[in-house]
Amino acid sequence: RIGTAALAVQVVGSNWPKPHYTLLVTGLCRFQILQLLKEKPYPVAEVEQLDRLEQFTNQHKSEEELGELSEQFYKYAVQLVEMLDMSVPAVAKLRRLLDNLPREALPDILTSIIRTSNQEKLQILDAVRLEERFKMTIPLLVRQIEGLKLLQKTRKPKQDDDKRVVAIRPNRRINHIPSTTEDEEEEEDHDDVVMLEKKIRTSSMSEQALKVCLKEIKRLKKMPQSMPEYALTRNYLELMVELPWNKSTKDRLEIRAARILLDNDHYAMEKLKKRVLEYLAVRQLKNNLKGPILCFVGPPGVGKTSVGRSIAKTLGREFHRIALGGVCDQSDIRGHRRTYVGSMPGRIINGLKTVGVNNPVFLLDEVDKLGKSLQGDPAAALLEVLDPEQNHSFTDHYLNVAFDLSQVLFIATANTTATIPPALLDRMEIIQVPGYTQEEKIEIAHRHLIPKQLEQHGLTPQQIQIPQVTTLDIITRYTREAGVRSLDRKLGAICRAVAVKVAEGQHKETKPDRAEVGEGEDCKEHVTEDAKPESISDTADLALPPEMPILIDFHALKDILGPPMYEMEVSERLSQPGVAIGLAWTPLGGEIMFVEASRMDGEGQLTLTGQLGDVMKESAHLAISWLRSNAKRYQLTNASGSFDLLDNTDIHLHFPAGAVTKDGPSAGVTIVTCLASLFSGRLVCSDVAMTGEITLRGLVLPVGGIKDKVLAAHRAGLKRIIIPQRNEKDLEEIAVNVRQDLTFVMASCLDEVLNAAFDGGFAVKPRVDRLNSKL
Ligand code: ADP
Predict the structure, then answer these.
(1) Residue of 70, 150, 52, 149 whose CA lies nearest to 110
(2) Structure-model confidence comparison of residues 173 and 615, the more confident one
(3) What is the spatial distance between Cα 454 and Cα 495, in angstroms, rounded to a whole number?
(4) Which sign does the torsion angle of CA 530, 533, 539, 542 carry?
(5) What are the φ/ψ torsions at residue 693 (nearest 5 degrees)?
(6) Is 310 exposed, middle or buried (0-12, 13-18, 19+ CB in 10 A)?
(7) Rg of the chain taking only CA atoms, in angstroms
(8) Are strands 402-403 and 394-395 parallel, antiparallel or unpaired?
(9) Is 584 helix (H, G, I), strand (E, B) or coil?
(10) Distance between CA 64 and CA 73 in Å, rounded?
(11) Which of 448, 454, 479, 588 to mutate to test the pocket of ligand 1 (most atoms within 8 A of CB)?
(12) From its phi and psi, is residue 13 left (phi > 0), alpha (psi between -120 and 50) or beta?
């Protein structure tokens, strides 16, 4: 029940990464607990002070009494300290303390310095009487002296070859107030730091980086480990050593091999492959290309990432993908300054550390989805990374020294160029990767996706057969996408289902063997297991292993994937006047879009719903104005037969899929057609889709994304497409087989659009003009 009162002098530590505190205290005196008053939340007790009370008054007496004992102790203490290296300031100070301090204080101080177990130290603290304390400490001192003598003896012969180590090591041990286990740990840590320094010196980092690292390691050596900064600095130095300052893979580029590899890995996408080969060819001829950064733009699942990976493969370089979607803090790119707790390098430096070479292919995925926030603009940071004029000395905030990124090959991908910051867009060469046609998808599925899925599921072509018609069914009835990602997933689902069947079949084949070999009881178990499913379900199906290969026909498809998700609903929806099909472009590819209109009694209001952008709303107003001004020409009337279409009439226009924001001028012609149908009471042809911007004068202007839109119409099974005259050139990009399935109507004015959209045309009635003049 004896304790030591102490004064807390300093508290150092932090709660991060885990709570770790170091307390520095000065011992005051010993005390004895008389009565424990309470234990929680912290103990409170009545205590009695045990020593240092009469320290000053009784000093002489005690010295006289203990004269011999204290003299003996003093001698040993001096002997011990003198065995240490006096050139170390701490040792010299200790020597001086021995003479200056009152003798009673010495046992406590020396016990804290010499090598003893905690148990022994506590015993000394428990010893209240000074005499007892002296007596207990002397053997410890003697033991330490003997130990040191032995150590010096054993190390002496080696002194010649390893002089410095012997001279420093034993002293260092004693300087550092050692205790058994801690000492070893500390030693290990010290060794680590020495190793780290060695690594830094032998690494090939730039001169500037080396200078910084050496400075940091010097600080590290002086730092107590308990300081949070210790771990921080160490992590930093370890990263610096790990970075591939000078390490690179050798480019092995041969255009012919690259062409073969690209062709083998990817079906179709000729334009993209051609451009990539050009890019690689220029690289081959002129090393250190400071050309633009390639940026693949297209809907998801069209193989942008996959081509990036192939480029790395052809060049024999490492590949690393950096996902930028949702990144809105520039520190994500450029790192956090090391002053922050939890600071770390940016994704670029991290990527380099991961790949371990300084010339990888970095795929900056989804540059169009970079965000912006109060923490700075990540796009601006990316500019520095991508600019060949600047990126040879890219400075990450965490590293705080320049790193040469000029050897890195950057490729970017995006779904749309619209949201890529202009400055970034300026540095990139955009290569459009449009969606695939159904035929292309079938080929991709059979050449690449199915073999890949079979391999992933451990199946062989002898076990499963997916005919082309089934693939077409999956494409048209179970997916509606520009790329092939969901097709790939559906094929995966089929393979999983087949894998179960195949495994079941194998189980059955092996079962009789096992039953023969197995013991009686085991055997019975198998039999009962077997009997159960057979009695429940189709016996024929389970009794025999399924016939190989398992053929996936439409019925199997329905069993595995459920009822078809997309049916040809187009004609159904066009069974009333006031509906037309438009073609829209979205970052996910082209889509067909229904436009619905209805009229009711009212005051000439136009209501628009379906989350429309400003441009779309303006298109609707334009369409109404044009129809109103041409109402007589086309014999369009409101419900009460008046040519003033908005007289006592409200119009409501709706663009379904209300949750998706829509904008852009290309719905103009569709709105006109839809309203013309509403006011004339005639049905729009059910197999026609259209796109085009309109003007107030009734002209049709060209729009973008024609290829994606045409593919969407083709996917939806439409037959006739009305596009602006000036978009005719875009049709060349479309595969011949798609073009053959469709009829294109080139329209330069709204008259032509309406004529093509309605069965039998939407001709102007010449009578109307005459009638008009009569009036
Ligand atoms: P993206 O990056 O454009 O979203 P991915 O590159 O991830 O798409 O492609 C999705 C999957 O489709 C990949 O498994 C890829 O191999 C496959 N794929 C896409 N296009 C093709 C193609 N033309 N030939 C072969 N496989 C393709």
Answers:
(1) 70
(2) 615
(3) 7
(4) negative
(5) -90, 150
(6) buried
(7) 42
(8) antiparallel
(9) strand
(10) 14
(11) 448
(12) left
- pLDDT greater than 70 at residue 160: no
Residue 412 clears pLDDT 90, i.e. is over it: yes
Contact 303, 269 (CB under 8 A): yes
Q: Is 342 helix (H, G, I), strand (E, B) or coil?
A: coil
**pLDDT reported for residue 351:** 92
What b/e readout covers 388-400, taking b as 16+ CB neighbours within 10 angstroms? beebeebebbbbe
Which of these ranges, 16-25, 143-152, 603-612, 625-634, has the smallest mean pLDDT? Answer: 16-25
H or E segment and range at residue 688? strand 688-690
Rounded CA gap, 588 and 301, in Å?
Answer: 9
Q: What percent of the chain has pLDDT over 90?
A: 12
Pocket test for ligand 1, best of 273, 276, 305, 306 (most atoms within 8 A of CB): 306
Helix (H) or strand (E) holding 430: strand 428-432
pLDDT higher than 80, residue 706: yes
Whether 387 shows a pLDDT value over 70: the answer reads yes
pLDDT class of 514 with cuts at 50, 70, 90: very low
Q: How far away, in angstroms, is 485 Cα from ligand 1 center?
A: 7
CA gap 469, 445 in Å, rounded: 12
Retrieve residue 521's tokens: 């009881």
DSSP state of 662: B
Please tell me which residue in 62, 203, 619, 666 is annotated as part of the active site: 666
Highest-scoring range by mean pLDDT, 445-454, 462-471, 610-619, 757-766: 445-454
Query: Active site residue: 709, 748, 765, 773, which one?
Result: 709
pLDDT tens for residues 542-583? Answer: 445 567 778 888 888 888 888 888 765 555 666 788 889 888
Domains by residue range for the chain, with CATH: 1-53 (no CATH), 87-151 (no CATH), 255-432 (3.40.50.300), 436-503+546-567 (1.10.8.60), 571-757 (3.30.230.10)
Pocket-forming residues, ligand 1, beta carbon under 6 Å: 266-269, 300-306, 413, 444, 448, 483-485, 488
Distance from first CA to last CA of the chain, Å, rounded? Answer: 120
Evaluate whether 474 touches 557 at the Cβ level (below 8 Å): yes
Contact between 6 and 28 (Cβ < 8 Å): yes
Q: Are 466 and 557 in contact (CB under 8 A)?
A: no
What's the whole-number average pLDDT of the chain? 80
Q: Kindly give the pairing relationship between strand 688-690 and strand 579-586.
A: parallel
Report CA(493)–ligand 1 centroid distance (Å).
18
| pLDDT value for 155 | 64
- Residues 6+ positions from 54 with CB-CB distance below 8 Å: none
Report the distance separating Cα 172 and Cα 178, nearest Å.
9
State yes or no: 300 annotated in a binding site.
yes
User: Please, how many CA atoms are within 13 Å of residue 763, restricted to the half-sphere of its CB?
Assistant: 5
* Cα 702 to Cα 660, 722, 733, distances in angstroms: 24, 11, 16
Number of Cβ atoms within 10 Å of the Cβ of 378: 26
The number of beta carbons lying within 10 Å of the beta carbon of residue 182 is: 11
What is the Å distance from ligand 1's center to 305 Cα?
7
- Three-state DSSP state, 326: coil
| 481, 588 Cβ separation under 8 angstroms | yes
- The residue whose CA has the least distance to atom 19 of ligand 1 is 303
For the cut 90, the answer to whether the pLDDT of residue 296 exceeds it is yes
Give the Cα separation of 549 and 547 in Å (integer).
Answer: 6
pTM of the prediction? 0.63
Establish whether 360 is an annotated binding residue.
no
Beta carbons of 204 and 246 less than 8 angstroms apart: yes
